[in-house]
Amino acid sequence: MKKIFSILLITCYFSIGQNICPFSYDGTDSNATIAVTQENNANFMITDGSSTILLSNIECPIEIGVVAVYDMTGIYEALCVGSTSWVNSGNFAIAAWSDDSTTPELDGMTTGSEFAFALCIEGCEDTFYSSSVSIANMSGGDNTFIPNGMYLLDSVVFNCSSSVIDDLSQSCSSIDITENKTNKSIVKTVDLLGRDFDPSINPGVYLEIYDDKSISKVCRF
Description:
Layout: E1 7-11, E2 31-36, E3 44-47, E4 52-54, E5 62-72, E6 75-85, E7 92-97, E8 116-121, E9 127-137, E10 150-159, H1 162-168, H2 177-182, E11 186-190, E12 204-210, E13 215-220
Parallel strand pairs: 2-10, 3-10
Antiparallel strand pairs: 1-9, 2-7, 3-4, 5-6, 5-8, 8-9, 9-10, 11-12, 12-13
């Protein structure tokens, strides 16, 4: 009989300002495996609320991490429990390590905790956290963490500030995004025909021309 996998859509209403890049985590005695398939690449993106970029369109190397988020007396703390390099050209998997119950410290995911994800992107000092996650338990059970479980990650939307997303759409260079933001400014915005364009009034696709003669293509709807 064909199994129907239940899909979990998580919307995160909390805000995490914690920077955990580069990722660091401890391998414990058990883990869950989270598969990401190439056919779902278009379902993984970063948004600032108005503009969006697919992870597959970012040239800089990306590390995707599984994050356990815990409420520490009203303050949310993010703990990386596993990570791997993002791959555009094939399938890959992430191991999400469980908490070691024999030690007093929290060093992994606990049974029944929800999955969250984060990105570290080369050249950017920020950590990008997931705002929505669609994940399926391949055994057909609960979509929360279970040691030795198998999951299929269908889609993730990550959040970022509007000052970062335009830089992510440019080619990856030796100048990091943080330095890039502080050392250049927009001198003109035009549409694809070269006409003056005001993105605060009109949505659509336009070009940002910077004082260093670089150009960024932006989609804003």
